[in-house]
Amino acid sequence: MPTFAYSGRTRGGETVSGERVADTMDAAVAALRREQIVVTRIDAAKAAKAAAAAKPKGAKTGGKAPTKNLAIFTRQFSVMIDAGLPLVQCLEILGKQEPHKGFSATILKVREDVESGAALADAMKKHPKTFDPLYSNMIAAGEAGGILDTILKRLAVYIEKSVKLKGEVKSAMIYPIAVIVIAGVVVAAILWKVIPTFAQLFAGLGAELPFATRVVIAASGLLVSYGWIGIILAGILAWGFNRYYATNAGRHLFDAFFLKLPILGDILRKVAVARFCRTLSTLLASGVPILDGLDITARTAGNAIIEDAIQVTRSSIERGETISAPLRETKVFPSMVVQMINVGETTGALDAMLSKIADFYEEEVDTAVAGLLTLMEPVMIAFLGVIVGGIVIAMYLPIFDLISKLT
User: Fold this and answer.
1) Within this chain, do residues 174 and 212 fall inside the same structural domain, yes or no?
2) 61 located within any domain
3) 71 and 41 in one domain?
4) 210 and 109 in one domain?
5) Would you say residue 271 lies in a domain?
6) Residue 142: inside a domain
7) 274 lies in a domain?
8) How many domains does the chain have?
């Protein structure tokens, strides 16, 4: 019978390696599993040295992977682990088939570390831009509990729902921004090219111009003469905003402002609640301690005000309090959410209750975004019509006055 060289870890976390005689590779893996050994690498004995010497080549590692690619990787990884394939083989297959070069190099680097005896979570923690603390901590919980395939399924669901939630927020923002940009380009083109022609015509006629016409002509003159200064100022303002928002004070100021915006602020709050509940539910269901879970959840909240509220809650729990009481005191989370969390704590099913809250608020975001887009469409069309129509009317008013005097 063939001999297979293997390496793996015991339930206690000890790294072991050796050779096993079996009819097939699957039979060898099954035998090792019966001995409570989690196989990380297994090869035919003759090819073991060559496999260990394999080094990933290509793009640099450490870059952030596209969220969609990470979701696909996680889902496929889960299926492979569930099918009984060794970790190293799973990572090698996924790394070679990954189309994103940076992500592919990272996966192959993780494979190399695991093959050398490192735990999967520890290997992933070396690439925090690709595998964030939530991801690596859940993987660690899955390895410790021997439920890696289940944890990967939960991670895949979490990432897919997160991608969907971000997409809904972007769709709510893109439409009005696109209409405003188009309106700005159209108005700038009219003021730059069309209005100067009318201004020369009116100057030649020597007619007295209405106030609205004078305002439009003055705006056109400013754009033609000083438009480049406006572009530079806009660039400086954008740069200054990014720099200030990167500071702690800037994040708090603007994140608080965004949450207070009409309609949009309500959507952002619902998104933050859904993300908080989904993240914490996934972590708790995976066996991550609640203090670690809240710390990770705070860092992935996406809003400084929500992050502060979660950290205050975490500090209160360290002192022995419940989750619901400090959450209520922050006055950031809706009362319904706090009450449902309180019920989840009382019944001992906090992770399930958080999951239900997340489902509810994700549906609320769906409805709110659909309503916002329905409302925005006529408002934006009316806005564009008023701006462009106002300029056209202002330019034709003097012509109408001249015609009335001639008749």
Assistant:
1) yes
2) no
3) no
4) no
5) yes
6) no
7) yes
8) 3
Asked whether residue 324 falls in the same domain as residue 406, the answer is yes
Residues 260 and 205 in one domain: yes
What the block records as the tokens of 262 is: 């009409």
- The verdict on 41 and 78 lying in the same domain is no
Per-residue pLDDT reduced to its tens digit, 351-395: 889 889 988 988 888 888 878 777 777 887 888 888 888 888 888
Residues 191 and 85 in one domain: no
Residue 39: which domain range?
A: 3-53
pTM for the full predicted model: 0.65
- Across 58-62, 74-78, 193-197, 263-267, the highest mean pLDDT is recorded for 74-78
Mean pLDDT is highest, among 62-71, 167-176, 251-260, 298-307, for: 251-260
pLDDT, tens digit, 9 for 90 and up, residues 98-152: 888 888 899 999 888 888 777 888 888 888 888 888 888 888 877 777 778 888 8
